[in-house]
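Re: weekly structure request thread

Next one in the queue (212 aa):
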Amino acid sequence: MTQAPTPTADTVRRLVRSLLKEGRDGTGGPSVRPVTPERRYTWWIGDRHVLRLAPDREASTRRRRELRLRDLVRPHLPVAVPVSVAHGDWAPGLAYTLDTRVPGGTADEYDVSAVGEADLAGLLGGLRAVPVRPAEALGVPRAAPRSLEALRRMAVHAAERLAAADEFDAARLHQLAPANAARLTAQPGAAVLTHHGLTGAHVVVSADGRVR
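Done, posted below.
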């Protein structure tokens, strides 16, 4: 596996200057900075773009697949899907994509409002509506469904902790009894497209709590 050197600001600046009209006149171009000090392969480019650099060939395969997958899911989703304004290799065999930046922060920075919860439900429902066969043709892997009973037990534990803090009515989870959870288990042949890594860091939320 090819492992690239950690990109520097100069590496990113040279690449961005070759891609954007800004800075080609010698003005220096947009500012560049890593999204976080730990994430040196993802960079903010000015206020309008984000540059994602693949650190190895496996990640490069995912980057290239994602470009095609975005076009597949975009018509089904009620939220914005980033658009790539440029893509290619930033080092031999290692992909990059320069994307439009969706305004907002992560769900770790902003609380999701009630309306934002509806946005998230629309996102999940939209993914479910994406036809599976074209997604598989792009190389999206299949994964076995997670145990709904295990998730139910985790939810009950979380609800009890929230109830103790007077932040949730744990009785609301009584309707999701083990027998009811068993009836909701995924059926054979019922494959759907899922995010499979939907954490707060992967959701863009606006300051007013909308999922973007």
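Residues 9-100 form a domain with the Phosphorylase Kinase; domain 1 fold (CATH 3.30.200.20). The first strand starts at residue 32 and ends at 36.
Next request, please.
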